[in-house]
Amino acid sequence: MPSVTAHLLRRAVRSLRENVYLSLVATGVVASATLLLGVFLVIVHNLQAVTGGWERDTHISAWFAPDIPVERRFELKEQVGAMEAVSAVRYVSEDEARTWLAERVPEVAPVLADLGPDVLPASLEITLAPGHDDPEAIHRVAETLALPEFDGLDYGQQWVERFNAFLSMLRILAVVLGGMVALAGVFLVANTIHLVVFSRREELDTMRLVGASDRFVLVPFLVEALLQGIVGSGLAIGALAVLHHGFLVRLQAAVDLGVAGEPLSFLPWPMVLGLGLLGVALAVTGTWAAVARFLSKVA
Which class for 270: exposed (0-12), middle (13-18), buried (19 or more C-beta within 10 A)? Predict the structure, then answer.
């Protein structure tokens, strides 16, 4: 068995040397398909970071009734802050609310001055903890805050429901597009390898005539595909890193592409490793499909 394995490995290495051009073409196709998948993963990764930031910003505004004393307001602030679903609570006084609105909408400053100091109520700005930002959890917190001391609540229920529906659609779309990109990569690699196999049909016909089994024919091609996949994936990951750090980061700095304060980031190492393994899998799967199709025709 070891001698057979060594023979198959030698055949694979010799074939790579004897068919340098075709091997380079196959490696380039693997690298291109892996790079395409990498670009897709970078986009999805950054979209998840952005939408995750939006989810973390989910909050509830609870406006105090005008006759609630300040001491009671801060007691409620402590009670609300102790809730499991709440990560932070900020008290906003009437003056702070007026200043905030006047800074963002300067046109209303004269109107606020005419209406007096108490035109805007004091409030608690409540930031929800991670895991409590879905519509059901927000609604439960809002029900808990339905106290006589609060004159009204605002948590954008319709916006939250639409946003969660958008996230669900985005995740489904990402899975569908990812599957389509992966299938396109396998199709591209398989057809390229099929051309490589067809160019070596005389060698394969000779092997079949002398009694070589399908496995004996297939294994060296799979070994070649493994090596091509490793090299192609490495090239794709390197090109993706250059594209990200050399182009996207500079473009972001030039035109401020950060969304919701989140910078465009590269893939974490587990995803980089997964991308490399995916490139190898593309090469091996495409080669297996191409050789199997050729062998079925000559059987």
Answer: exposed
